[in-house]
Every structure is written in structure tokens, then in C-alpha cells.
Amino acid sequence: MNHTSNDTQAVKLSGEEVGKHNSRESCWVIIHGRAYDVTEFLPEHPGGAKIILKYAGKDASDEYDPIHPPDTLDKFLDKKFHLGEVDMNTVEQETKEEDPEEQERQERIKRMPILEQCYNLMDFEAVARRVMKRTAWAYYSSGADDEITMRENHSAFHKIWFRPRVLVDVEKVDFSTTMLGTKVDIPFYVTATALGKLGNPEGEVILTRGAKKHNVIQMIPTLASCSFDELVDAAEGNQVQWLQLYVNKNRDITKRIVEHAEKRGCKGLFITVDAPQLGRREKDMRSKFSDVGSNVQSTGGHDVDRSQGAARAISSFIDPALSWKDIPWFQSITKMPILLKGVQRVEDVIRAIEAGVQGVVLSNHGGRQLDFARSGIEVLAEVMPVLRERGLEDKIEIYIDGGVRRATDIIKALCLGAKGVGIGRPFLFAMSAYGLPGVDRAMQLLKDEMEMNMRLIGAAKIEDLDPTMVDTRNLSSHTTVVPTDTLSLGAYDALIGPKEKVSAKL
Amino acid sequence: MNHTSNDTQAVKLSGEEVGKHNSRESCWVIIHGRAYDVTEFLPEHPGGAKIILKYAGKDASDEYDPIHPPDTLDKFLDKKFHLGEVDMNTVEQETKEEDPEEQERQERIKRMPILEQCYNLMDFEAVARRVMKRTAWAYYSSGADDEITMRENHSAFHKIWFRPRVLVDVEKVDFSTTMLGTKVDIPFYVTATALGKLGNPEGEVILTRGAKKHNVIQMIPTLASCSFDELVDAAEGNQVQWLQLYVNKNRDITKRIVEHAEKRGCKGLFITVDAPQLGRREKDMRSKFSDVGSNVQSTGGHDVDRSQGAARAISSFIDPALSWKDIPWFQSITKMPILLKGVQRVEDVIRAIEAGVQGVVLSNHGGRQLDFARSGIEVLAEVMPVLRERGLEDKIEIYIDGGVRRATDIIKALCLGAKGVGIGRPFLFAMSAYGLPGVDRAMQLLKDEMEMNMRLIGAAKIEDLDPTMVDTRNLSSHTTVVPTDTLSLGAYDALIGPKEKVSAKL
Amino acid sequence: MNHTSNDTQAVKLSGEEVGKHNSRESCWVIIHGRAYDVTEFLPEHPGGAKIILKYAGKDASDEYDPIHPPDTLDKFLDKKFHLGEVDMNTVEQETKEEDPEEQERQERIKRMPILEQCYNLMDFEAVARRVMKRTAWAYYSSGADDEITMRENHSAFHKIWFRPRVLVDVEKVDFSTTMLGTKVDIPFYVTATALGKLGNPEGEVILTRGAKKHNVIQMIPTLASCSFDELVDAAEGNQVQWLQLYVNKNRDITKRIVEHAEKRGCKGLFITVDAPQLGRREKDMRSKFSDVGSNVQSTGGHDVDRSQGAARAISSFIDPALSWKDIPWFQSITKMPILLKGVQRVEDVIRAIEAGVQGVVLSNHGGRQLDFARSGIEVLAEVMPVLRERGLEDKIEIYIDGGVRRATDIIKALCLGAKGVGIGRPFLFAMSAYGLPGVDRAMQLLKDEMEMNMRLIGAAKIEDLDPTMVDTRNLSSHTTVVPTDTLSLGAYDALIGPKEKVSAKL
Amino acid sequence: MNHTSNDTQAVKLSGEEVGKHNSRESCWVIIHGRAYDVTEFLPEHPGGAKIILKYAGKDASDEYDPIHPPDTLDKFLDKKFHLGEVDMNTVEQETKEEDPEEQERQERIKRMPILEQCYNLMDFEAVARRVMKRTAWAYYSSGADDEITMRENHSAFHKIWFRPRVLVDVEKVDFSTTMLGTKVDIPFYVTATALGKLGNPEGEVILTRGAKKHNVIQMIPTLASCSFDELVDAAEGNQVQWLQLYVNKNRDITKRIVEHAEKRGCKGLFITVDAPQLGRREKDMRSKFSDVGSNVQSTGGHDVDRSQGAARAISSFIDPALSWKDIPWFQSITKMPILLKGVQRVEDVIRAIEAGVQGVVLSNHGGRQLDFARSGIEVLAEVMPVLRERGLEDKIEIYIDGGVRRATDIIKALCLGAKGVGIGRPFLFAMSAYGLPGVDRAMQLLKDEMEMNMRLIGAAKIEDLDPTMVDTRNLSSHTTVVPTDTLSLGAYDALIGPKEKVSAKL
């Protein structure tokens, strides 16, 4: 963290001095060895006052880091409240309460499967679920409302079945392709996901390194735990990165971000259009609640805890007024290709073509925004026939994200006409559980699966994948079955296989 | 309760005196400090004689209150059986038997989650299920036969998926609308539900206050625990209420009720047309049975306990002969808009338009009447295209109720053409678990969800919602899957994720 | 039992004498106080020799009774092997081994719910499952192969949903109808089911009495435990019965049966056409196996236990050569209306009309014959439109059976064009658990449901039921869902409601 | 095993001598009494070095046998590394560690149900799962990726329902047929499956004997544990066998195999076309992993254990370049009928006809190759109408395999136009659990079911089976249901049957 605005003072503050300011009336906190007076900031804190007051007069660095980009305090807290360095030797070490839940987690970490036992992307998730901190897990794994879209995203791929060709020479299989002109090893990119340090203290730079190793593109998130420059700095050689952009209400800030990204070499600008407001994710909210609210008593309506999980805490700057009218302005401030991330119906894809953007990502934000939004793969199957009918299929690059877990999922998307797919959570889980080796193995597994399945479907190269190789007739079916007949089911005596003999001893 | 017919006598009855009349031959009961001779009434009691005999010679007020509107005795028991006041000091206090089930319930109440932990309408139901009295829970939560329609009601919304618009300016979102000319904050109303005091001793006035706070309309139920006037009196300012009407076999009574409602300012008359007889709800019947019947032995057919739950006990007055022929009469006795509640096929919607009524509620009575009746939302999708085809869509206001739990459900109904939706049970559960603050929070959660989801679907106001924003192709599918292949399933060895290492100590 | 062929001898056989013949070489058994030499009969016994040898030299009456019609020995065992009366005082009382399973069953019988706790037909099945003997339960409850058709039979009704009419005058509801000219109270009949004494020692006469009380028709089964005449004798007044017929390879026997039935007043002849061979029912076979085979060791192929459950044991006489060519012969030997029971496709219904029979039962034999045969209700929906198209709908009476459990099921069948429905197992279960009062209550429950649901669908009489009142679009869909994605499901962290507070004491 | 290349030396090697070579630097192993120096071979071993090193300096015969055809060492290890005989008396007997898992398995074997308790093919699988070695079970039972195609294979049959004919004379039922001109008792053949000795030390000769007994054809697998000649030698009389062929990159080897097979009398050549590379089967890989890798620690990416289960270990010779261009060559080297095994779309069936082959097997390799490949039965329903339309249905014999478990499955395939079906795993499981008697009973059960179900569907002979007897309208539907609504489900209080009385004692 770069505290450019605070000179080192002659006499450091003492822990005792800071410790006196431990109330709503006067609230100081220590972040990375420096004290800040946040009393006036309390009501404005997007994450609510409660979480700050928990650390009033104390060192809040551990809690602060994963949620806040390193330059947050310099940007948002008036310099007059920057109180200067603290003599950390005088700060009482918080003797952490014995947290039985945390102890159990540490035990689970000891029993963690070794990396080689992960054979597919779901395995990383299964491990991460057991070894991640509960709040971090809740932030990554949660979706909107009933999480139905989130689960549909992967489930939708299961409605697509293959029509493989046999007796095709597949000795040499090449599944490299290009995305916005960049040659990549395999048709996926690492899509933008927020708050990487929740899962791993190093944050998203791990994904940068993994992407380099496997020659795929990383999309840098606006809400990364690492700063944008840290992530660009972590890239090596001619490694290509894109920028994911939440558009700020203050367009000047947005302009600065875009121009800076272009200057630093980003090769694509992905404007998020499915998040005028960040979603309600109840699993995240519940987890947050119990973190700060366990001693809170219901008081009948007033003074209610307003914390709504990590998502809401970090996103109040996003502009809900963003509209088609803003596109020409973006085109005026950058030469980067512009893509709209989060398009969800064919009408808007056509409008995007008319607006002259270079691509769209058919996405529902990982199921984290509007529940009952359709999966990207389903929208893709709606979009492509219309584009082909109108001769527009080459006017734009179409990507999808959401629910991709297997190379067969990637192949299905490409058969239907996508240029590539974005993958997010699986790499977060791999990173959270195993760090860079986890991300490396996750990507390698996808490559192994890809080679195998290209062969099995009878395609030696990406261009061989075509719509006749998939049967998508049920893709747009959203059925629930008639509710269970519980009484009948309760009375039914299910068939069972042959019974073992009763042991002789008994 | 207003005992207008009984003057206070000089000498009050003693508890001892009342206590002698504790048999089928002579049965007195005390209700709110007054004694009544109900011996002759026993065979006529809609709820059966058993439940009265349980309190013969005793104070029955607690059991009586939630089931009976306060003016019941005055209306239905001949004045000669009103025996006058009892000196309650002489009435032996029933030392309630230790009821282990009730004790467990009291423990659960102590551990009740605080209100802020409820993040959606299902949460109130989950809490209410644990803290309500079993019989009350059974009455509210039960449905007809196998409760398949009851569950289908919410499930049907899951067959509708969104086609959101992106890049729409949704900075300002306004989801207020009008219903029968009344401006409301959000397109739902509190629909009529019976016996509110089962869940909360204050009864439906809590809903009146919640509706006021959030500026939505309350529909007053015929079978409220509170009297009609109590509910109207509880309304404040220009708060709007509607009347739900079960039509009495005695039309004079019905006429009095309607005229009185109009006089007191009700702005809509909703005639229930899906309940010529109130439904068999087995969960309710089972709960009732164990309440009064636990010592009963099977006797082979005669002298059988005939109690059939709360629903049947309170509804014997409803006229099963009500028909289209009666509509003109209603139009002749009131100027209130008339709506038919419980219409279930497009043919009847058209007939309703021809009959000149102002609206219909597409409803199956919360799944409490005919099992395998279709959901209101499904019927809506059948109705609207036909009306539009015939140019009738503006001739009538169409509402639906049943299964609405999320703002996305409301939005789906409005996209399809509904003017608004009725919500019943969720507010009962919120009220039963947390009283008015619960109802308040439940409504606020819907508003929060509504604002979020209007933005996410790309609609700044109610008029922006249209049928292209939903995919309803599977809405009318009612499938069951082929019965489970239990032998194969039993032999299949499911995939599991990586195993943990065995702990070193073991 | 009528031992017409054995005079009472002067000196009765002693138990000791009989007991000597306890081997395959010489095998005597006692049935109802008389001894029989079955040594030569052993290899011919349809149920296998093993089960007889278990009782060699002993009294076998208890085991014998439910499986064998009373006149079996007289009919099938040569008179020379009828050894005469036994002095039962000299027969050693079998001190039954303590059978822990039987003891548990006796305990369950003590805790049996009282009859009034049964609120629907499934409830009887739930009780019967707990209190019936395992082998009897297995015989009644089992179906063919994977029992998929058996379960589909009820499940199919769940694919049909109602389109009720409202505002119909349903004060008076009359659901009586006629079947083959006989007026009945409600459109169901008691269909033929075998071996009633397995469930209740009195056997099918209980069903006769129940049918009388509720004025419905009983179909007398060929394989009843009671003899045909016992069942006809049990009928009272002008009670109507039909005969279900398995056609014997020996047509003379068949002719005698038919002529006798007509003479005794049967009003309909239902020839079973879906059972050229009785089905393999593995649950039944498994149950039978453990009954007689628990000490059997695998011997590699020879001397294998051939018992295949009760069904196979009793049906070897059925003629698999029965064909359309035989129909004129039946028409020549009886004036009873002839109906074909077990028709399963529209082509065969048309052929039946051409053959001049009076009706068909669309049935798959309760799911006990061909697994993956379609349900009767599904076949009905296939048949009626074709008949109507050809003007044949009045040429024949169409019945269905299989899976009927609710009055709504009956109503669905009648809406689609059935004249009535057969109900079998539910009455067996009611009879097995509660005897005649059980059957009585089961029928009464159906009447109660029928009255309620006729009102709720808006039909005052049977003729009001028409095809527009049901939506059957999914009735013929037989889908399985894509196999579960177990890895993803294992990694998914399901949403849960609010957590309780941790109790203060802990 | 025939060690033709090693003369018996005068002085045998001692166990002590061999034992010294127990490291990566010098690695000797003993196989069937002879020592081999495999040091240089370690990096080339398809199954990885680890598994060999586990036995370095020791006797590896038990592990070696089921995976390697008997002539492997002679073929693949240079003669100079054949070290000659070992004096086995001097080889230290491995005192096998107490393996608690193996002990439990031995206990389960003791309690194994007797053969007569197996009533259907699934029963053998249920037993085999309990009594087989874990790694063997994993190899047989595993499928590709999420095993969704593997499970779909059987599940697909459940989407086909029957339309049986009644009143057909089925006294005599003949379900014999011909396959490639060979008369067989029943329309199935034993399809090729690898590594039979994993399940039973005798290997695939057991299947040869079972096939003989029931007069069905056995397809000899390339990857059998027994050698090809052993299997041909085991055939008796005029027993017919076919050859399944994985095509070797070295066509000379392939040519030798084909010519040898023809010379030995094989009557059909089935070229596998769905396996250019053998599939990733994670269950198998996981099982393998824990077998050799339990002490392995994660090392961050390098020196990773590469073992990928038995499938990958044995298949590196298969030629992924095999294509349509190779077909004429096969036709030039053999007069056997040629069939393509693994065709998966109608376009390729037509191409096969054009290529002049005699048949195709519509198959997805038992779900072991490409997950989301469609079932053979589904592809059959796609293929036949097109062939009939073009008059091609008699140009070729069409077989299917995958998921056949019941005679009804066979009947469904034949109704749709298949000449016969292949059955693989069920016989492996029967053989693994019960040896030849198991295979015998499994085949007999299919015959019993076949006779029964031919009767019940109304077909006296194979030719009577036609497409009108099945309803396949849902066969190509691949749906998943909308993800579960867990919150609602959690709050729902399911209906339950009547409760038992509380026991008097309590």
C-alpha cells in the first residue's frame, strides 16, 4: 500500500492513544501501521458502521484487506483524517477468541486432499468449500435470491447432447483459437471476479500467472482485491489482458480508468451491463450477518443492522443510469475493442451490432444478479440462428460465461457458435484451496479433457465444430415436475436388491 | 365483545355452580366472564360436540377466541341461554397439564431467530413452522388433498424465465401502480385469509397496520377473527380496504354485509366463487383429530368423531347454489366495483366480462379447495392472449393470487398482463412469528427485491413490463417423471469428490 | 370345506402315524383335521415341493387356507389319497418358533392407528404395510419387474389438471350413474383381486358386504380365496356382481364356470386378456424365497428352488392361446354382457367393437404384468378421440382401472369419457388393516371426496363432466430427467432458512 | 505363459539377489517365477512407473495378471532384460499388511446372498459391488466424466413405453433369431469388455462357456485378460464368436490379428470407431490413485503421479488417425463381415452403408468415452425412419448396446428395428460375483423374462415386433428440471400418513 499522502511523523502514535477512540463518538482504526479517524465516515461506509465499530481503537488490517483495493483510503478518506504511523509494538495483540468453527476449519485444512486427487473442476469447489473461511466461501459461492439461475447455468449444458462423427482422423488435435485477434491455447478466458484476496492472500495475481502459463487471457475485474496496476505488472511478456468495467456515476473516474487501461496495454474493454445495482445474495448476507451480528437483539425495526454482504458493500458507485446512449462516448474515449458483458436476449445482441461494438458476452453474471435469468448457453442458442438468418454472424464476437465446468461445456458453446467462454469461480476455488498450483492444474485438466473430447466428437480443430454435432432441442425447456405425491411415496415399498445372509456369529 | 343482550345481574354465578354443568346432559361454558348454556346447541355446533364438551363447566375463552368472530354468541345462541356474568374469582384456575409438545414449542420460541435474520418471505414460514401452535400452523399451512396444487402455485413461477433488457436507464425506478383506481406503492395487496388470531392474539388488525405503512390495500376476509368493524376502525386516513365475501345461503345477511361494507367505505367487493363448499384439508383434520381425539378408541363406525379441522367448522353457511344468475342482484345492491375471486378458465373470464363485473382474481384459493386446479399464473397465461385477440384486455382488471413469494413472481405476473397480485399466507406467517414488525419487514423485503429486480430486468416503471420479457413456453407443462428405477439406482455407485486424508492421529 | 368324498372312518388317524410320513419319499399333510397323501403330487405342485415338505407330517391348514380355494383338494387330488380324519388331540401342537419379525408385527398391530385417523385411501396402505404379514403384503403390493408401470398408474393422474367452471349451482350434487345398466351410487366398482384371505381370514366376502352398503358393484375374481358361491351367497337383495374370468386351457371348465355364474345371477363377464401368463413379481418372489429358502445353500444350478411367489403358484391353468377367435364361442355360451379386461391400445378397442363385445377395461393389471405398459387413463385419452371421430363412442362401455386413489382421479377418468373405474388394492389394504369397517370407511371417504370435488369442478351431475374440464396435454409424456450431476450437487451448498439462536444454557 | 525366449538356466536366481534391485536406479521384478529388469522400461510403462516401483525387487504376478495379456513381456520387453528363472523358495513371502478394507470385503463375501436370490441383472451388480475388489469394481463400473451418458443408457429405455396387442395366441413363443447368419436362441450377444480377470481369475473363458450354454454369440475383446487363442480354444462345437478390434497404429499388427481371427473361425469383425483414445474415467482414476498414491505428498506440479486408471494404461497403441479411408483396406484383408462399433449419428450409418460394411453397432462404448453422447437406443430411433424412407433398412444389420438390463429393453430395441443387442457389464458382474453359474443364471433370467414379455406384448415370434408396439415420443428428450427451490422445500411440511398410537408402556 502506498501512503503517499502521509509523511512519517517524528513520534508515532501509541496503541493506548488509539485505543481510547473506540466508540461511535470517536472512532479510530489502524490499517497497516497507520491510524485513521473514521468517525465522520461511519454513516457513509457502504458496508455499514457496525463492522467498523467492531474494530474501533484496534488494528483492522486483516478484515480490511480483502475487501478494499489498496488505494481506497487515499482515494476516499480526507487527508485530515489520516493520523499517521502507529508504534505497532505498543498495540495490544488481540488474543483471538477461541473460535471453534475456525479450529474445525484448521483441522479440515490438515486433512485436505492433495492436489493430484482433484480430477475435474468440481473437485476444487468441493475442497474449497471445506477449507475456505465461511464468509469468503459465502461471497464466492452465493447467487441471487434462490440461486436458481446460478445452478441452471451449469445444468443447462446437460440439456445439450452430442452427435459425434466417427472415423475422422484425430491424431493431431489443435484446439487453439483467437479471441479479439489474440491467439490462445484453448477457447476459454479467465473472467472477472471480485475480491480475490478473500480466498488467497495474494489475490488475483495468481490468476495472472496461471493465465500466462496456459496462454489464455485474463479479464481484470474492476473490483479486484489487487489494484489494476498490480495485475498488469504481474503479466509477463506479451501476455494479453482485458478490462472488465463497472461504469461509475462519475464519468470522469470511468474515463481515467479506461484511458489508463488502454495505456497499460489492455486489449479489450468489457462493459458490464447486467448490474445496474449489485444483486442481493442471501447466502452472503446471512454469512455476513452472523459475523457481525451474533450478539444483536431484535429491537423491533429501528437501529437495524443494514449489512448486506460483501457485494452490496463494494458497489455503491455503479451507475444505474447507464444506457445505450452512453456507448458512443465510450467509443470516443478508447480504441480498445468494446464488448458488452451481460447481454441476455437476441434483440439486444442486434442492437449491440447496430451500436458498432465488437462483441457481447451472453451472461447472467454467474447467477448473482437476476434470478430466473436464462443461462448464457441458452441465450446463445436463441441468438445464433437469428444472426445467421440475417447474415450478421460475423459482425461480432460472441462469448458466453456461466456454469462452464467441463471441456464438453466449452465444445457445446463452440458448436453453437460462440468464439469462446469465460470461466470464473472454478479458478477462484482452485486458487483458494491450492494457490497457483491449483489454478495450473485446473487449467491443465481442461486442456486434457479438451484434447480427449475433441477426438471423441470427431473434430481435429475448432473450425470442425458445427451445430449438427449437438442436439439442443430441450435447451430452452424450464420445467418443474408435479409436486411430489408424498402420501403415496410414503406408502410405497421400494424394491431392493438381494439381502446379505445374516452372519453366522449373530 | 359487546354483550348487549345481557344486563349485569346482581349476583354473579359462581364457578362451582357452572362447574356442575359439565356433561352432555347439561353443558355450560364460560366465555369472557359470562356463562352460556349450550346443551341444546351441542348437536348443531359446526365444529362438533366433542370440542365443546372438553370445556363443559369451564372457561373456554382461550379456545373460543381465534375461531369465533366476537359477535358469534349474540348472533347464534338464543338469548335465553345467556346465563349472565360469572364471578371469575370463584372459577378454579385450570392448572394446565404439562404438555411436552408445548414445552418444546416454548423452548423453540426462546431460540427464535431475530427478525433481521429473515431475508425473504420463505424465512418467515420456516420460523413460523417452528414457533406456532401445531393446530394453528396446520390450519394456515394446509391445502386440499395431496397439497399438490398448493405447492404448484409457487412452483409454477419457476417455469417462467426472464428475457431482461440491458442498458436501460434505471436510476429512478417507480413500481407504484393503481388498483381499481387506488394508487398503491407496489403491485400487491394483502389478500383475505381466515382466523388471524390463531397466529397472533391481535388478529388481522396487524395486517391493516402493515398495509397502511406500506400503502397497499387490505382485503378484509369474511372469516376474520377480528370483526369487520374492528378492521375498518383500524384503518387510518384514507387507507383503502376491500371486502372478500362468502355468500350466505340467506341473502338478507349477505345484503346487510355488502351494504354495511359500502357504507364503511370499502372500495371493492370480491365475491369468492371457488368455494361452494370449503375444502377437505387433511393436515388440518389430522391436527384437529389429535387435539380432541387422542383418547378415542375405534368403535367400528358409530359415534365417530366428525371434526374435520377448522375450515369445515366455520363455513357451513356458504351457499353452494351461488351462480351466474346471482350477479345482477349483487350489481343492484352495491355501487362498489364487483370482482369474482377464484376464476379458473378463460371461458369464465369472458363470461365475467359479459356479466359486467369490474375484475376477476385468477386463483385456486391458495390450493385449499380443488387439488389439481391450475395455478393463477398459468391461467393468466391462458387468459391474456385470448382477451388481446378479442380486444377485451382493457375491459376488466385481472388479478392473480397463489404462491407469490418473490418480487420476481410479481414481475412475472405483471409482464403477462396482471394488474396486481394478492399475497396471503406469507404475511400470516410473518405476523404469527414476529407480529407487526414481521409484517413490516416482509413488505419491506418485497419492496427491496422489487426495486432491485425492476432494475435488473430493465424496467423503470410498471408500464415497461411486457410479455416479451418472459419465456412461458413450459408454463402449462404438468409432467411427472417416469417412476424411479430403484434397483439400478441402488446398484449405482455415485461419483464423489476427493477424499480427505485420514488424520495422522488415527 | 366340504369333504363329500370321505366318509368319517371309525378310527381316526393319530398324529403320531401322520408324523411318520414327513419326507419326500412319503409325505402326508393334515388340512382341516383330515390327512392327505401328497407324495405323488409333490412334483406337480404349482408352488413347488419345498413349501409342502416344510409341513410334511404336520398340520398345514394355516398356510394352506389363503392360497387355495376351499374345494381345491376335492378337485385336484385323487380320492385315493384322501386318508380321512385325524384325531387332532393327538397331533402335537407346533410350538411356533419365536419369530422376532412376527413379534415386531404384533407390536405394530397394538400401536395401529385407529380407523378414524385414515383420511384417504393411501392411509390404509400405509397402515397395512405395517400390520400385514410380510408375504401377504408382498403379494398384494408387488408389480412386474421394476414396478414402474405400477407406480405410473397413479402418477399418470397427476399429469391431468383441472379447468373448473365457477358459479354453477352445485347445491345438489348427484354422482350416481349406471354401469351395464345397473344403477350405482358412485362411478367405481370393486375390481377383481386374488387371494383375499392373505389379508383377512374372512376373505373377499368383506368386499361383498362393503359393496352392498355403498351400492357399488363387486367383480368376483377367478382366484378368490373364497369360493365363487360363497361370494354370491354373501350378496344381499338385488346386489349386482360381475365375474372376472381367467380362461382355462380346458374350455369345458371355463364353460361350466361361465354358465354357473350366469345361473347365479352375475350381470357381466369380464374376460382377462392381459395375462396369458401371470407376471414375474420380484418383490413377491423375494418374499417367498426368504420364507421357504432361508436355509438353502447355493448348489450351482441344479436342485434350485423354483418358487416364484404366490402369483406363479396359482395360475398355471391360464390359457396363453386365448385369442380373438375365441370371442364368438363366449358369445355362444352366455347372455351376460362380455367385456375384455386389459385392453391397451386403440386398435384393440376398435377390434373389440367389431367383435361385438359390450365393453372393455383399459387396464394393465395393476402394473403386475408387463412393465412399461401404459396406464389405463393414458390409453383412455388415446382411445376416446378416435372413437368420437369415428362415431363409435356409444357402441361400447369403457372402463379403466389402475392407480385410482382419489375422487379427483375418478372425475378425471369420467371427464375423458370413461363410464366408471375399477378400484382394487386400496380396498384390500383397508380390509387387511381394519376389516369391513375399513372397507366401509374407504368407500365413504371416496364419496365424501366425490361430493366435494364435483362441487369444486362445477358439476352437479355425472353428465356435466366433459373433456374441456381437464388439461391432458402432458398425459402421454414419459420422461426421465438427465441423470443427476452428483459431483456438482455434492459441491453445492444449499440455501437454508434462518438459524435458531444457540440456547443460552449451552 | 509361454516363455519361449528364456531357456531354463542351470542356477536359478535367488530372491535375495532380485531383492537388491528395488529402486528406480535398478528395478527388477518377478513375474510367474521369472525375473525381469524393467529399469529402462520404467518411463515408458503406460501405467506409470509408480505402480512398478511398488513391486521393485518383489513378486508382482498377482498385480500383473489381470492387466496384461499373457504374452505381453515377450512382445514388449527386449530379451536382454529377461533374467531367467528364480528359485521361488528363496523369495520372501510377502506378509500382506492387514488391509482393513480387504478384511471387510472378505466378511462381505461370507455374507454374500446365494445365487438364487438374484432375480434380475441389476441384482448381480448390487452383489458384485459389495464383493469385488475396489479397483476391479472401479474399472468395470466407471464411465466418462460425470457418468451421465453411462446412466442415460439404461434410463433411455424408460422413455419408451409399450402398446401391447391382446388376444394374440402366444402359447408357443419363439424368440430365436439370426445375427450375421448365425442362428441364436435370443437376440442378444455378449459384447466385448476388457480385463475379465479383474473380476474373476479365470477371465473371459467363463463368458465363452456361458454363451455356449445359451447359444448366443460372444464378441472377443482386443483387451481381454485371456489371450485370443485361449478364448477361441474354449469355444465348443460350432460355437460362433466375433472379434472386437482396436486398430493398432502399426497396421501390420492389425493385419496379423484380423487374419488370425478369420483363420480361427471368427464370423464377424467389429471395428471400434468410438475410441480414438480411451476415455478418462475418474472413478477408475481415483481408485487407482489411492491404490498407489496414498503416501504421495503434493509437490506443486512436478513429479506428479500420472496414473490414470486401468483404461489409459492399456490402450496407448490405439490409432487416433483411423478414418473412413481405412475401410477398403480392411475389406481387402478379410472376408469376415465388417461392422463398425460405436456409430452415433444417422449420417454415419448412411456413410457406412455407402462404404459397403455389413453392419453397425449404435453404441457409446458403455458411457465410457464421450459424456453426453446419446444412448444407442435413441440413435436407433433416429436412424431407422431415415433408412426406411430411403429404402436402406435391409442393406445393413443394426445392433445397439448400452444399458440393456431387461428383456423389455431387448424387445424395445427390436420393435424399433435392431437386429439384436449387445450386453456387457451385467455378465461381468455376474461372473465376478458367482462365476459361471452366475453368468448362466443371468442369461436364463433374460430368457425367462423374454418369454414372459413376448407373451405380454402379444408377439409369438421376433418378426411380430413392430414400431407400433412402442411409444417413443419422449425418447430424445434430455431435460433437467429447474433447480430445486430449497428454501420453499425446507419450509414445506410434508403430508404424512396416520401416526401410530404411543405404546401403552411409555
Automatic annotation (TrEMBL), chains A, B, C, D:
Any single GO BP term: lactate metabolic process
Region of interest: Disordered: 284-307
A Pfam family recorded for this sequence: Cyt-b5
Domain Cytochrome b5 heme-binding: 10-87
Keywords per UniProt: Flavoprotein, FMN, Heme, Iron, Metal-binding, Mitochondrion, Oxidoreductase
Chain coiled-coil ranges: none
Listed name of the protein: L-lactate dehydrogenase (cytochrome)
